[in-house]
Amino acid sequence: MNLLRVRGQFAPGPKRYDALMEDPLVSDWISVYRSASTRRNYLSSLHILCVSSKLSPRQLLELDSDEARGVVMNVVKEYLRQDKLVSAR
Question: With 13 labelled, which of 3, 20, 36, 85 sits at a CA distance of 20 to 30 A?
Fold first, then answer.
């Protein structure tokens, strides 16, 4: 969670995935999930995938299943290479 320091306390700030919500494709998809933590986790994961692959959510959807799997696995392998096991899952 991104936090801003305000007079000795921490207050929530903008999230790194906020820009994704400007895409109607993403906002429509994520709106079906009621749990705030589920939405936060899914958006965070999508953000990481988009940044790492340099693909937009729309471009990811346009990939066939084998290509999409390859993109995801490349991101996972990079996290494993960096010994970021929790993030890789």
Answer: 85
Q: Yes or no: say if 68 and 60 are a contact pair by the CB < 8 Å rule.
A: yes
The span from the CA of 73 to the CA of 49, in Å, is: 10
Nearest to 4 by CA among 28, 70, 13, 81: 13
Condensed to tens digits (0 to 9), the pLDDT of residues 10-69 reads 667 888 899 999 999 999 999 999 999 999 999 999 999 999 999 999 999 999 999 999
Measured between alpha carbons, how far is 26 from 19 in angstroms, rounded to an integer?
10
Residue 64 CB coordination number (10 Å): 8
Query: What kind and span of H or E run contains 3?
Result: strand 3-6
Q: Looking at the domain assignment, is residue 10 inside a domain?
A: no
Say if 46 falls within a structural domain: yes
